[in-house]
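Entry:
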Amino acid sequence: MMRHKDGVRGFTEREYRYLMERSLARIAFVCEDSQPHIVPVIYEFDGRYLYLSGWNLKYSPRFQDLDEEKITLLVDDLESANRLVPRGIEVTGLVETKEKDEKLYLRITPVGKTSWGL
């Protein structure tokens, strides 16, 4: 279960809405070459898991064999173009590689988080 600064488990209502209203994020992980990578991704959130998919996942060595690895997903933006007030959420999770209808996707189970400005 996740904990955040006020000790509540899971996502707060604001964090939940923030993740549901967006789809662009960046993930950070370490590949087989032992080098860190940060990659922009499109994600979906069902309230419990975060999902990553795309035509290139199946062919990218970066996204293969990530089972049970820990990755970090960062979703952030500015409150408005006029006010430079940053906000976001960083979710750490365990990733599983799944396949459905011959399409590869990643399912991330959140295990930790930090949010700001929400």
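Strands lie at 24-30, 36-45, 50-53, 69-78, 86-100, 103-116.
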